[in-house]
Structures are given as C-alpha cells and as structure tokens.
Amino acid sequence: MDDITKFINKPEHRDVLAIVKGFRNGAVYGAKVRLPHALVMTLLFRSGSFKEKLTVILDATIQHSKNLAFFVTIYKTLMYLQKKINGGIEQNGHSFIAGLIGGYIIFGENNNINQQIVLYVFARIMVGLSKLPVKRKMINEPNHTFPVFAAVVWGVVMWLFRHDREVLQPSLQASMQYLYLDSDHWSTLKNFLWHNK
Questions:
Q1: Residue 27 and residue 70: Cα distance in Å, rounded?
Q2: Residue 133: is its pLDDT beyond 80?
Q3: Secondary structure class of 194 (helix, strand, coil)
Q4: Domain identity same for 54 and 115
C-alpha cells in the first residue's frame, strides 16, 4: 500500500492520474445528481410497473454518470495533450477546445439526459456571461446586468412562444400555454376560478 501511495503522489504522475481521478469523480457526481432527480420525476410523473420505473431510474442514472465520467476524461486528456504540445504551458484557448471536442463527442447526441445537462449548463453560462462585463470592468454597475439579462431572456421567450412556439421544448410550451393562453378562456365561474377548462 505504501508503494501505491508513493506512486500516486509522485509529481511526474499527477497529470495522468488526474485524468483517472476525473473519470471517477465524473461517474460519482453524475450518479449523485441524477439518481435523486430520476427517482422523484419517475415516481411522480411516470406510469408503469415498479420494475419499469426502476429500470428508467437506473438507466438515467447510469447514462448521466457515464456521460460526465467520459466528458471529464476527454476534457482532461485534451488539456494534458495541448499543454504537452505547447511545451508545458497552458494557453487561454485550451479549455475551450477541450470542452468543444468533449461536448460534441459526449453530449452531441440529442436525448433527454443530454438535453437536460446541456440546458442546465447553458443557463448557468448565460448568467455567467451576464456578469462578465462587470468582472472585467466594462460596466461599473453590477446591479444593472442581471435585470437586463432577465429582460432579454423573457423578451425572447415570449416572442418565440407567440410566433414560433414549436421551437421551444414541449414542457415549456405546455407551461406557457397554461399561463398565457388558457387564461384567456372561461365560460363559467367554475372554470374561471377552480378549473382551467
């Protein structure tokens, strides 16, 4: 055991072993995130036998876990290779290139799990990009960027819903239908206050 500990702590092995640890962390984190989500969503909204529900939960958890593990592996491997090629120096664009390639390979397949992950990340980067001008001192008013960002997001989604709603996700379309269009219709006090239709 001491020999293994010495081996994994040698500085010359760190970059390569970080790839292995990244795979492990991606797999564990993917399972930690997806299992509770899949459990709740499947039990609340999916029909079928207990065995069918369990299969859906496990399949979603395995796919999420596998995708994150392999993405981290590809990303860290490409970062390592680019740094090696560049004489041991990491360049600013290396992370973008590694993320771009890994994202295409791992998350490029259009399925429910990948859509959820990509949309989650997209939402977070858009918020991050709205903060970037303040961080880089391009804008002095930190409280102004989020309201502008929120206004643009809501302006675009309402415009898309009104004019090209089929490009929006079905769940978003259904929510917006309920909120903005179904609220235009009623015929009795019952379907005005207690029931939608």
A1: 8
A2: yes
A3: helix
A4: no
Contacts of residue 78, Cβ cutoff 8 Å, sequence gap at least 6: 94, 97, 98, 101, 102
Higher pLDDT, 147 or 158: 158
**Do residues 116 and 44 both lie within one domain?**
no
The mean of the pLDDT values for the chain is 92
Per-residue tokens: 98: 């590694």
CB within 8 A of 131, min separation 6: which ones?
Answer: 142, 145, 146
Question: Two tokens at 151?
Answer: 């206004």
Contacts for 123 with CB less than 8 Å, ≥ 6 apart: none
Domain extent at residue 121:
111-197
Q: Give dist(CA 2, CA 4) in Å, integer.
A: 5
| Digit-coded pLDDT (tens) for 36-61 | 999 999 998 889 999 999 999 999 99
Rg (CA), the chain: 23
